[in-house]
Each structure stands twice: as structure tokens, then as C-alpha cells.
Amino acid sequence: MRRKAKAINFGIIYGISQYGLAKQIMVSNNEAAEFLSSYFNKFPEIKDYMNETIKFCRKSGYVNNIFGRRSHITGINDKNFNIRNFQERAAINAPIQGSAAEIMRLAMIRIFKKMNETKEENCKMLLQIHDELIFEVPKEREKKFTNLIKHEMTSVKDSDLHSFSTPLTVDVNSGDNWGLLH
Fold it and tell me: Is-contact 63 53, C-beta < 8 A?
């Protein structure tokens, strides 16, 4: 059930069709259509967001993320249905993915600055994968760095330029290698 819910949530962001959803979660087209219909009945604001975003993009040729960064969507008014449909999905997705990427970059900058301020040389930020950051930390300093990283990542919700009413949450996992954490 969790897998299906995740497929529906992410699928809607990417503009999944009932056919695409049916295939992904292995149900009939009718069941997939019912899932999508129920979802939009329960969360009509999402459908409104999607429609308003497409409408705005058709008129302006771009969409903005929550920080105001623009993504130009060049084929939003294309005569070719497939191109237009793909660009509509891009218009819906760009503000969401772009905002998430900006939040992650802000978190990485804050963590980097904090570690430089405190001269923390035992912790290395190794890698970013989507909404994850991978660090290398000595076991005996794990708790200290976990607190520092969590604090810096959650504090991204407020700055001189923005403030979110929704709190950002951070989960931390540790292990001897990244493969053990997934």
C-alpha cells in the first residue's frame, strides 16, 4: 500500500496518466483512474496548483520556484500534443524540484560554513544524492555531528530572504557504508 501511495504522490507531481499509474502499480486502468480521482477529490488544491501553474506558464513561458528562480518552459504552447503534454508536466514539476534543490544547496552551504567556523576537520561532506547528504564522520563524534547537521539543515526554513511556515524535518541514519543504509 505504501508503494502504491508513493507512486501516486510522485506520479501526480510528474503528471502521470491513469495508464501510466495502472502500469506502475499493476492495477487496471479503471482502478488507476479511481485512485487519481479520489486523490484530487481529497486534495483539490493540488489540482488547482497544477492548473494555475500551467495557465501561468502558457502566458509567461516560465515558472518560478519558491525563491523566485525561473525555469523557462519553451514548448508549453506547442501544437504537438506530446511535446505540449511533456512541457506541462515540466511546468508543474520545475517549481517543486527547483525549490527542493535550492533548499538542499542552502543546507549544504550552512553546514560547510559551520564546519569552517568551528574548524571541524573530522567531518567531511562527501556527496549529495537528491534529498540526502552523505558524510564521513568518526564514530566517536557521530552524535555531535548529527546534532550539528540536523540543526543546520532544519534552520534553512528561515533566513533574511525567506521563511517557511512548514517545518523542515531531517532523518539521520548511520552505518559503516552507504550501501548498508538502504
Answer: yes
Look at strands 70-72 and 124-129 and give their pairing: unpaired
Alpha carbons 76 and 83: distance in angstroms, whole number: 8
Q: pTM, whole model, 2 decimals? A: 0.83
What range defines the domain where residue 6 resides? 1-42
At 79-123, the pLDDT tens digits run 999 999 999 999 999 999 999 999 999 999 999 999 888 887 788
Please report whether residue 23 resides in a domain: yes
Domain count, the chain: 2
- Find the distance separating the first CA and the last CA of the chain, reported in whole Å: 20
Locus of grid cell 502558457: 58
**What are 158's strand-pairing partners?**
163
What percentage of the chain carries pLDDT values higher than 90? 59
